[in-house]
Amino acid sequence: MSAKVTTSSLLQNLKSKIRNRARRRGRLVRHYFLVSVALVSGGLITSGLVELYFRYQESWEHLARLQHEITAAAAFKIERFIQEIEQTMRATTKSREITEKGLSPEYHFELRRLLVISRAITEAVAIDSEGVVRVAVSRFTTVVPQGEKDLAASPAFQQAKQGKSFFGPVYFFRGSEPYMTIAVPIERFAGRVIGVLQAEVNLKYVWDVVSSLKVGNAGYAYSVARNGDLIAHPDISLVLQRRNVAHLNQVRAAFQSQPGGQKPTGVVAQNLDRKQVFSSWFPIPGLDWAVFVEQPVEEVYGPLYASMFRTSGLLLAGLGMALLAAVFVARRVVRPLETLRKGVERIGGGDMGLRLDVKTGDEIEVLAEEFNKMTENLRQAYAGLEQKVAERTRELSIANERLKELDRLKSDFVSNVSHELRTPLT
After folding, report:
1. Which of 37, 215, 225, 410 could tie 326 with a disulfide, CB 3.0–4.6 Å?
2. Half-sphere CA count of 171, side-chain side, radius 13 A
3. Among 29-38, 117-126, 334-343, where is mean pLDDT lowest?
4. Phi, then psi, of 347 in degrees rounded to 5
5. What confidence tens digit (pLDDT) does each residue in 109-147 have?
6. Which pTM value belongs to this model?
7. Strands (E), 88-235
8. In degrees, to the nearest 5, what angle opens at C-alpha 270 toward C-alphas 264 and 273?
């Protein structure tokens, strides 16, 4: 009897625990769901952020390289333009008239031919070794008569007299177009400087080079001297107004960079209109100029933002699929466990013939098989206990009948003895 009570007590305890677990069964689903979502979403978000970061860097570097190539090409054209003028002037100093007669009036023809060859030169003067103008020609103005202008103290004369070419700063003639002075030494024989050839060069060609540069839809280019004066700009009025741009961050950065440092560089800064632009530059060391290319930030970042939006959309789609996959995985894992839970509840209710049919091909299926074995063992043990209890009950019933028979015999014996005692002997 006590064995039956013990088995029943164990089943009741097991059933009570199962019910307590059942009240918390939703936690397991939530746990697997959250873990799955965290793992899958975490991977997608991490990969998406890494992709966005590298795409941003690559776009930035690509734009910097593109603008670098544009500015480098423009700088090369401008530098070649100035070098061609210098070479033409040096060729003029090697004429036969110089070799035979020096700076004679016959040299006037050579200077006229120089103006024909180089359309950018508007005035040319030949200066002797004392700094006095000996021959002069001009395309538009009347020049100072020969012998009446002393240029001995000018920086152009001083540098050219030492055998070096001179490239002067940009200036504006009568407030209109930009000009610069170029001077080269005149050598009668190799190493013997007898004078200086000085020319005033119109830089309108630089305007043409700069204005021809097209960058995107709203991009533009301009050229600046070290002192910040605009040499060329798509808005000619800014050049004519002598606008100085030395205060702009990109201009300061360009002229503070190391000479020869031509690594693609770009910065986000303000332009003259106080608008945010992406600016790149390329120096012209021989002239101490720099060419700039700028694009509005909105235009620069437009393709990048579009790419980021596409990536974000794909990321959100991936997250949605991850949520569905997480729900599927959670259900696939929890459903067999729910079957196990219900099976334990039925066993707790006394259904010892239950067998679980779980086919997952993993540890849960193994657990279900072990559960079935346990159920079978428990059923056999319970059946054995029931048989033993029945046998004990039968034995107790027989013993009880015997006791009743003995009690009846005892009562009969006592009754007979009492009767005999009351009956007198005869």
Report:
1. 37
2. 10
3. 29-38
4. -65, -40
5. 888 899 999 989 999 999 988 888 888 898 876 544 444
6. 0.62
7. 121-128, 133-138, 166-167, 171-172, 178-189, 192-202, 220-225, 230-232
8. 130
